[in-house]
Design brief:
Strands 1-2-3 form a three-stranded mixed beta sheet, with helices on both faces. α1 packs across α3. β1 and β2 form a beta hairpin. It is 57% helix and 17% strand. By secondary structure, it is α+β, with helices and mostly antiparallel strands. The mean pLDDT is 88. The chain is elongated and about 75 Å long.
């Protein structure tokens, strides 16, 4: 199976959906932040390994605690995944912290701040012209 094949894309989507459901509803670890989401999943073509990119809405401490909680619950998550998805092999999951959403929010905030300053300077110039 090739990396970008239709079958691999479907498997990635199915694993991502099930992983989201397991993390959101079945894990009771208090270290895992409630605002944790699965951004994307990349299952290897041989179905042996899986990279799960996880986004946590919170501070640095909440992100680190969530990653520790997910790594400790990896066996449980893999067992639940095997029960919910009928695959030849259940992939070994590697959780990777994805900060792209946080980066996007920060960039958007900076753009809004620059636009506000620009608008204020245009208003001040207009008042000075009068």
């Amino acid at each position: 199976m090739r990396k970008n094949s239709i079958k691999n894309t479907r498997i990635n989507g199915e694993v991502m959906r099930e992983l989201s459901n397991i993390i959101r509803g079945e894990i009771k670890d208090p270290r895992i932040h409630p605002m944790t989401s699965v951004v994307t999943v990349e299952v290897a073509p041989d179905l042996k390994t899986c990279k799960a990119y996880i986004s946590v809405l919170g501070d640095e401490d909440a992100q680190q605690n969530t990653m520790k909680g997910l790594k400790s619950a990896e066996g449980y998550i893999r067992t639940k995944l095997a029960k919910n998805i009928n695959l030849r092999n259940t992939p070994e999951i590697n959780f990777i912290l994805d900060q792209s959403i946080e980066y996007g929010v920060n960039m958007s905030r900076k753009i809004d701040e620059v636009n506000r300053r620009d608008e204020q300077s245009h208003q001040k110039d207009a008042e000075d012209a009068i």
